[in-house]
Amino acid sequence: MKKIVISTGGGDAPGLNAVIYAVTKSAHYRGWEVYGSHGGYKGLLDPDELVRLTPEMVEDITPTGGTILGSTNKGNPFAMPVENLAGEVQLRDVSDRVMQNFTRMGFSCHIAVGGDGSLEIAHRFATEKGMPVIGVPKTIDNDLQATHRTFGCDTAVATATDALDKLHSTAKSHDRVMVVEVMGRDSGWIAINSGISGCADVILIPEIPFNLDSVCNKINDNELHHKHYAIVVVAEGARAKDTEVIHKATEQCAVGRQEVLLGGVGEWVAQQIREKTGKDTRSLVLGHLQRGGSPTTFDRMLALRFGGAAVRLAEQEIFDHMVALAATDIIAVPLAEAIKGRKKVPLDSDKVLTAREIGICLGD
Ligand code: F6P
């Protein structure tokens, strides 16, 4: 009988509980035991943070948002923040302790559900400590390499699209430009998918540095066509071609234009549009709304399939791999492939082409 441990790392994404459900049930089907590690690796440092997962415990969690295991953004065992006696926080490598506990507790596999950061840590455990690890790709940003999709993104896109749908009527009623900032770090998947689905007039993504004049021309052009309102979707990582704006998520700083950071790039774009076109403009940041709520059917299915596939990999003892979505099937790919830099929207993709061909300005 195998005994496996599952952890969820990084920011939450809708579908995490569906993975936990599928892993628990698929392992139970094989007569294996499953444990959940609370707070990322905390359960492998402190047994109080470890919970035995049974089919009864996970019965109704699939449609729920968040993660029953809690997440962690500060839980890297290779550099764990630990407070010393003087109250100073120092980074300590506790990876050996994690590995010793893993072995002592008799685990035969660790299923690590996470984005690039968590999967990078998992890959280090596999290669440096010999931990049998299987990765499951999670992030609303969809910015992991080697998988067609990550779960969580579809729900985030649905939430953003719903917001855009609602903004059309108020924008139209008041002849306003509504600027909506969406998440995605330095990839534009949420922006381009929701912007196209939500019939935006302008979509600004990090992959295409934008020119404000193009944006304003599009808004002025709307006026010529008797459309007195506009919807502008701005990915949080978008940056202007003619300024040295560096997004907070990647650099935590902005060169030359501090105000971008203070208000967010969406607010800055809104201000610029107001100044350059004279249009009444409002901005909003969708923020963590995009991470919440029940996963869409697509995300649920993907997360459930990923969970099932991860357990099949454990059975076949294929470690240091990540389950991934190919054209139609779940495949195994080396974790190393998954963390080889962030995946961008290809500029020749049909989405970019479609956006242009249906009259959406991409800011270039
Ligand atoms: O990676 C997911 C994500 O939601 C990004 O889109 C966003 O930039 C970031 O996490 C927000 O992180 P936090 O929850 O720490 O504010």
UniProtKB/TrEMBL annotation:
Catalytic activity: beta-D-fructose 6-phosphate + ATP = beta-D-fructose 1,6-bisphosphate + ADP + H(+)
Database matches in Gene3D superfamilies: 3.40.50.450, Phosphofructokinase domain (3.40.50.460)
Enzyme Commission designation: 2.7.1.11
Domain of life: Bacteria
Binding site for ATP: G11, K74, G75, G115, D116, G117, S118
Pathway: Carbohydrate degradation; glycolysis; D-glyceraldehyde 3-phosphate and glycerone phosphate from D-glucose: step 3/4
Any GO BP annotation: fructose 6-phosphate metabolic process
Ranges where the Phosphofructokinase domain occurs: 3-313
Record's protein name: ATP-dependent 6-phosphofructokinase
Organism: Thiovibrio frasassiensis
Gene name as annotated: pfkA
